[in-house]
Amino acid sequence: MKKNFGDVIDNKVYEFRVLAHLSQKELAEKVGVSKQTIFVMEKGNYVPTLLLAFRIASFFHVDITDIFSYKMEGKANDN
């Protein structure tokens, strides 16, 4: 049974993309994913791979922690 640790990865992809005046499609093309991937990531419904997270941070010339943050919202449980 998989444990639910309540871990969350928040991101600021939307904010960085808008400040750079890029569409979701343009950013997707720059980092090698689909527009849908950017869309669901911005909505918080998709946690990118570590490789993609680094690729996005590198594209914006910032540290990965400027865009992505980790939060542990509780103790481990069996649900």
From TrEMBL:
GO molecular function: DNA binding
Residue ranges of domain HTH cro/C1-type in the record: 13-67
Domain of life: Bacteria
Pfam families, alphabetized: HTH_3
Keywords: DNA-binding
InterPro entries: Cro/C1-type_HTH (IPR001387), Lambda_DNA-bd_dom_sf (IPR010982)
Presence of keyword Cell membrane: no
Name this polypeptide is given: HTH cro/C1-type domain-containing protein
